[in-house]
Each structure stands twice: as structure tokens, then as C-alpha cells.
Amino acid sequence: MALYSVIRRQIIDPLRENSVLLMISVATGITMLGQGVIAPVLPLYAKDFDVSTAMVGASISVFGLARILFNLPSGLLSDRFGRRVFLVGGPIITALGTFLSAIAGDIWQLLAYRFIAGVGSAMFMTAGLTVIADISTPENRGRNLSLHLGSLLVGVSIGPAVGGLTAELFNLRAPFYLVGALSAISAVWAFRVIPETAGRAKIAASAKEHATHAASVALRPLLANKGLLLVSLVTFSIFFTRTGARQTMLPLLGNDELGLTAGGLGGIFALMAFINLLTIVPAGAWADRFGRKRTIVPSAMLAAGALCLFAFTDSLSIFLIAAVLLALGTGISGPAPAAYAADVIPDNARGLGMGLFRTYSDIGFVVGPLLLGWIADTTGSFRLPLLFNAALMVAGVMAFALFARETVSRGDDRDALQEGAAEP
Questions:
Q1: What does the pLDDT average to over 393-417?
Q2: pTM for the whole structure
Q3: pLDDT category of residue 345 using cuts at 50, 70 and 90
Q4: 53, burial (CB in 10 Å: exposed 0-12, middle 13-18, buried 19+)
Q5: Are the beta carbons of 398 and 333 closer than 8 angstroms?
Q6: Number of domains in the chain
């Protein structure tokens, strides 16, 4: 009964009270289910084109590259024309790129089609994050973002099993057809049920304003926004850790030095995903109740400590403990950085600001595996890259802790906050 009471208070009641939150969370879950389906299949599919490991990696990185290039334009244009056009158009473009990936004739075609799919992902995810910011207040923003991220994690967690099973039953191309269909379903869902969350008058005024001002003019105050830059350093390090340490270094360390099989590693990563899922909603509530900084700083430092523990582990038991600590750290810190970013971005540039925030994140997503892989190749060690990753995270978090202001403590006034955040 106590568990049900917590679930009802933290998950069911907020979704019942806010239909837009429910609708965008469903759309995100469907979209990220598709991303998860592709994850275990894409490297094998790319390898079938008889290419090098570097080209296989490129088939993964090109998706993130597209998001880096199109997050900002998506945010800027969503401020002009509204969110719905991107919530619908993004999945349509992703469906197109994924269907084409299923019929790619060579690796270069696959890279081009994965880039197209990444463009659609940038459009949808930037607009979706902006919708959550639109419908939230500083008092409930962390909780709402945690539910949104929770739906993302559900899709990502379930997807790999679905993708693997689909490939086993049919072939390596079949999961791409499935993802294309899921993306199309997400587009239909967004078109039918998700309302516009940016006021039409505001959209028209924004469109008129942007018609006479370059995007660089709109970007200037955001690039000078100290709070946004500092929290972006944190989210950069978190995404760097997810793809660099967690998805690249830890499997290699576990397999080469601890003798873990693919099945054993899969079980450990499934446990980490489950812990992330369990912590994401309480983390949002903590960010709203105790403040963004009081949630971000300790949890990110916990994650950095876990990376150091991985670097010095020589037993399976220590590896498991470090895995649990890393999952707790990254799970608790999950929604708070996005909530902080939404707090400090002015309302009239929310789409562009969230696009910039996602761009910093995706740079970490792309750079992490490449840089840590280079360090591992250069030093001949999987442990030194983990220590470098930990140092990078500590540096980003300490800068945030020392120089960023708290945005929800002592009843800070929203307008005063944004005026202060806009100052260089």
C-alpha cells in the first residue's frame, strides 16, 4: 500500500492532472522504444557491409552528429512556428530515414540515412523538452521532467530486447522496419492529441521578430547566460559518461580484465537501467523540493566516484558495487539539469535555449566514445580513460557548484531569476 501511495502521488496523479504531460510522455516513450530497438542491431547491420570497426562506429556517431547540427535550428524554429510542427514532423523524418536504412545498399547510404533519422530525432526531442518547459512551473518542473525522462528510459530499456528478438526471428533489416513504423505511430499520436503549448499570438510575434533578426542575435544572450553554460557543462559530462565510459569502456574492461561475457554484461547493464528507472521520478521531486544544485552536485560527484572505483576494481563484486553507484548517480542527476536550464532560459527564447542545452549534451554524446577510445588506444589501458572521465565530471560539477546560483530555494522570484540569468 505504501509503494502504491508513492507511485500514485509521484506518477499517476501528475499525469492525470496534466494531460499534455501524459501525451508527450507517451510520444517520447514510443519514439525512444524505437531508438532502443536499433541499439543492439545497428553495429551488426553495419558490419555486414564488410567495413572497418571505425566505420561501424561512424554509423552510430552520425546520428548524434545530426542532432548536434539540428538541435539549435529546431529550437529556433519552434519558437517561430510552434512545437507541434516538430513533434509531428520529427518522427516522420525519423521514419523516412529508418525505412531507407533498412534498404541501404552500402555503408555510405546507411550513414546518409542514419543522418536523416538523427535530424528527425533532434526535431522531436528538442520540441518535446520545450513542451515540458512550457507547461511547467519552477515548483513542478523537476517532477514533470522526471516523468518525461522516465518514459524515455522505459522505451530505451525495453527496446534492445525487442530489437534483438525481431532480428532473431526475421533478419537484421527487420528492426529498422519496426522502428520506422513506431516513428510513424508517434507522428500520428502527436498530430491527433498533443496541443500547441506556445501561444499563437506569441508564435506570430516571434515569427515576425525572427524574420528581421538573424539567429545569431537571438543566440547571443543565451551564450552569455552563465547559468545555462554552467549547467550545460554538467550535462555534457553526464552524456560523455553515458556513451564514453558506460557504453564503451565498461564493456571492454569487464570483458578483457574480469572475463565477463556478453550475457553477464547485459545483466549488469539491465540492472543499471532498472536503477535509473527507479530513481528518475523521486529525483525530480527532490529537485523541486530541495533545489537543483542540491540534487545535481552530490549525485554527479557520486557518479564520478563510481568511475574511479571502476578504474581500480579487480573483482566482480567491486565492479557490481561501482555499477550500482554509477546508476544511482546518473539516475538521481537525470532531470535536475534540464529543470535548471528551463529555469534560467527566458520564456521568449525557450525553444532556442533548450536546443542549445541539448546541443551541449549531444556533443558529449559524440565526443565521449571517440576521446576515451583514443586514450585507451594510446595508453593501452581501459582504466586511465575512466579516471579522465571522472576528472572531467568533477571539473564540470565543481564549476557549477561554485558559480551557479540555486533557482528554487527561498522562493526565488521567476522574473528576477530570468533577468539575472540574462546578464553576461
A1: 76
A2: 0.73
A3: confident
A4: exposed
A5: no
A6: 2
